[in-house]
Amino acid sequence: MSKSQTVLVNADPRQRAWIEIQPAAIESNARILKDLIADSCLLMAVVKADGYGHGAQTVARAALLGGADTLGVATLQEGLELRQSGITCPILLLGNLINSEELAACLHSRLMPTISSSREALLCQKVAEDRGVKFRVHLKVDTGMTRLGCDLTKALALIQTIDRCNDVDLQGVYSHLALADDEFSSVTTKQYQRFEELLGSLKQKHHDLCFHLANSAGTLRDQAFHYDMVRVGLALYGYSPLKKFQGDLGLQPALSLKAKVTLVREVAKGVGVSYGHRFITKRSSRLAVVGIGYADGVSRALSGRLLVLINGRPLSQVGNITMDQLVLDVTDRLDVGPGSVVTLLGSDGKNCITPQQWSDWSGSIPWEVLCGFKNRLPRIVI
Ligand SMILES: *Cc1c(COP(=O)(O)O)cnc(C)c1O
């Protein structure tokens, strides 16, 4: 066959290990979330960390199609990349910027920064004044997360400072929940009450501001947390941070992680498998080597606990997961051979493996699992 065909075969993204993304699932999840909130409430699709590992542009476009109104990113670079790809909707930087060069780039690309201090407000004023453009910003107030945000007791004074900055246009005031996924914690109620108090003292003079508080867990938990906008990440990708909601909302996971069996071997009883010989065969066994490892984002902490699916049925991973490969015990599975497709996350037949299961096996959280996939894995949009 011709040379160009040889090249194509080598470049097959499904050659070894890959991620499949279904934008239709993201779009449908955005619709479900939009239906859950009031007509007057905006939906921000949080697409930071490359869209939780799904590909930020793919997710952003699908979410906007499904009715999302704005986008949230963590870094300036993430915002710039979305702008360069032609996305024009409002974009809020959830992280903060510390110097005027960054703020100038932010303003130039019509990205809205998050402000937590008068230092940041005054920098924004200077940058905007120099360029003769109004700088649209959101103020973050700390109600109990103790990360970004200004002290609650200083919020009113900071808003006055911003009001005096003629070229800074305050668009929104927000806060972030620290324990929204813990249904038994009283912290969320406290944070809500603090936010309410702040709003009470602001609403008269600043009724046109966009107030927002809820992440996915806050959005699913209580309408009272919705205010003028919700900032949804995890639920947009098809996972509920609250166990009780998974399933009944109809959210669909948009990501599958797959790899291929590259070799099947027969080994005797009592043989040590992989680095450290953490697993010793208890019988004469068939083992399958799979072309994916921790350099792709399959955490080594999953070693010996991971279940995968082949032809819709579960199989156990054995021994230590290595950088590029892992091993399955396929002794009872004559249907498995070189080229068999292994589903590590997502559904195959009636079974499905979720980031929550990975988290239970490895002591992680679904957010970390999703953004742990490395560039070596090609992402195929379906
Ligand atoms: C990441 C982030 C979110 C989204 O959180 P999820 O739990 O994934 O919905 C919302 N708000 C802020 C400020 C964030 O940093």
Architecture overview:
- The chain is of the alpha/beta class and about 375 residues long.
- The protein has 2 domains: about 25-245, TIM Barrel, CATH 3.20.20.10; about 255-380, Beta Barrel (Lyase, Ornithine Decarboxylase, Chain A, domain 1).
- It has helices at about 5-10, 25-35, 50, 55-65, 75-85, 100-110, 120-130, 155-165, 185-200, 215-220, 355-360, 365-370, and strands at about 15-20, 40-45, 70-75, 90-95, 110, 115, 135-140, 150, 170-175, 210, 230, 255-265, 270-275, 280, 285-290, 305-310, 315-320, 325-330, 340-350, 350-355, 380.
- The strands form 4 sheets. It has a 6-stranded antiparallel barrel. The chain has a 5-stranded parallel beta sheet with strand order 5-4-3-2-11. Strands 6, 7, 8, 9 and 10 form a 5-stranded parallel beta sheet that branches.
- Strand 19 (about 340-350) and strand 20 form a beta hairpin.
- Helix 2 (about 25-35) packs across helix 4 and helix 6 packs across helix 7 (about 120-130).
- It is elongated.
Note the gap between the termini.
Answer: 28 Å
Weakly predicted, low-confidence segments: none
Number of strands: 21
Ligand species: pyridoxal-5'-phosphate
Proportion of beta-strand residues: 25-35%
The order of strands across the largest sheet is 12-15-18-17-16-19
Number of domains: 2
Q: Please tell me the overall pLDDT.
A: 95
Helix content: 25-40%
- CATH topology (level 3) name of the largest domain: TIM Barrel
Rg measurement, Å: 24 Å
CATH-scheme architecture of the largest domain: Alpha-Beta Barrel
Overall morphology: elongated
The level-1 CATH class of the largest domain: Alpha Beta
Look at the helices and sheets and give the structural class. alpha/beta
Count of separate DSSP helical elements = 12
**Biggest beta sheet summary:** 6 strands, antiparallel, barrel
Superfamily at the CATH H level of the largest domain? Alanine racemase
